[in-house]
Design brief:
Low-confidence stretches: none
Structural class: alpha/beta
Strand content: 5-15%
Radius of gyration: 27 Å
Largest sheet: 5 strands, mixed
Number of helices: 13
Number of domains: 2
Oligomer: single chain
Distance between the termini: 54 Å
């Protein structure tokens, strides 16, 4: 009898918990929707890894039919996207201005490597790679394979063409963790500001605090400015911690300069405004986390925070171009790694424009009277 009674109580409580679960959008999101979202995102990213293509910039200083044949052989691999560079362009300046990860120079006299003895002269290809890029090693392996094939086909197996690999001058001291840290800074600015702003706005609306604030001398603009200033401060606290851990634990070489500081400041304001916009459509505090996560998680994985955009399928790379975090990440890497001032300023201006747009929209759709 007692066992049957206990079973009945367990069933009653179980039914109650099931009802509570499905009444909580946040619980449903983190238990059901979030795992599905992760599978879809990672599946989309990695399902195309077999078709991944890597950009290789090629400057042909030889300009002979044989050097052109070599470039065509690189292109026929189906893995490399060949971007030919004018021979008269200064390679170092071009690499810096365009934040290039892989740059191949075919030297003058390349074709003489395939002349009969004794006229034959060995040639050395110069491959400049960005050590912080995860794709650089793959490009080097592909180039070596093509070089060996050319040696076998045109020189009967003699090694007449070799490859010298050197780090790009302004990135030689960096490694992949250096590439990774600017992405961590960007996603920290995104997640901390959006989650905090959505949670705060929803909680204040639900508890009727906005109605009370409307009766005080403080204006809504004063309120929003103070929130954004605080979020900028908290993001910089996180940035200091991220850099300190990176330097102490991984010997990273990143430092902040005025451009990167400006990008982080604007990103904090931009994502605070994004949180304000999201919060306008969230009805209760339980839904706040799910709503924020539904926006931030896809952006984290599709904006180059963890993976280089070139390693993604083309359609995902196209989606990344409409996400604000992409320009934050690109700007930070241009400034902190590549020393590409022009590229960093360009991304800074894009982030600034998006910040203005998001703040205007956020302020327009959120009024205390409506709350």
């Amino acid at each position: 009898m007692s066992g049957r009674l206990m079973s009945s109580k367990v069933m009653i409580n179980l039914v109650a918990q099931i009802k509570m679960f499905f009444r909580s959008p946040g619980s449903v999101f983190w238990t059901v929707a979030f795992p599905v979202l992760l599978i879809l995102l990672f599946g989309a990213i990695f399902s195309g890894t077999g078709n991944t293509k890597y950009s290789l910039y090629v400057q042909d200083l030889d300009g002979s039919p044989i050097s052109e044949e070599f470039v065509q052989a690189l292109n026929k691999t189906g893995v490399l996207i060949i971007n030919e560079v004018d021979p008269d362009i200064d390679a170092d300046r071009y690499i810096k201005d365009n934040s290039i990860a892989s740059f191949l120079t075919i030297p003058q006299g390349f074709s003489s490597s395939f002349l009969p003895e004794p006229e034959r002269q060995n040639s050395t290809l110069l491959l400049r790679i960005d050590n912080s890029s995860s794709s650089a090693g793959t490009v080097a392996q592909i180039l070596n394979s093509v070089s060996q094939s050319i040696n076998l086909e045109l020189a009967g197996g003699s090694i007449v063409v070799s490859t010298a690999i050197m780090g790009i001058s302004n990135t030689a001291q960096y490694n992949f963790i250096d590439f990774f840290l600017p992405g961590v800074i960007g996603l920290t600015a995104l997640t901390s500001t959006v989650n905090w702003m959505v949670g705060l706005q929803t909680r204040y609306r639900q508890n009727g605090i906005f109605k009370k604030l409307a009766t005080t001398p403080i204006t809504q603009m004063d309120w929003l400015v103070s929130l954004i200033i605080w979020q900028i401060a908290t993001v910089f606290m996180s940035v200091v911690i991220i850099l300190a851990v990176g330097i102490l634990a991984f010997d990273v070489h990143l430092t902040l300069d005025p451009i990167s500081i400006g990008i982080i400041t604007l990103a904090s304001a931009l994502f605070s405004a994004l949180g304000l916009i999201i919060a306008r459509f969230v009805k209760d505090e339980e839904t706040a986390g799910a709503a924020a996560g539904a926006i931030t998680f896809p952006m984290m994985f599709l904006s180059g925070s963890f993976f280089p955009l070139e390693s993604m399928p083309s359609y995902l790379a196209a989606i990344a171009k409409v996400m604000p975090l992409t320009y934050v990440n690109n700007g930070l890497r241009d400034s902190m790694i590549y020393a590409n001032t022009a590229g960093a300023i360009n991304n800074l201006l894009i982030v600034a424009m998006l910040t203005v747009v998001f703040m205007v929209v956020g302020a327009a759709i959120s009024t205390w009277k409506q709350e």
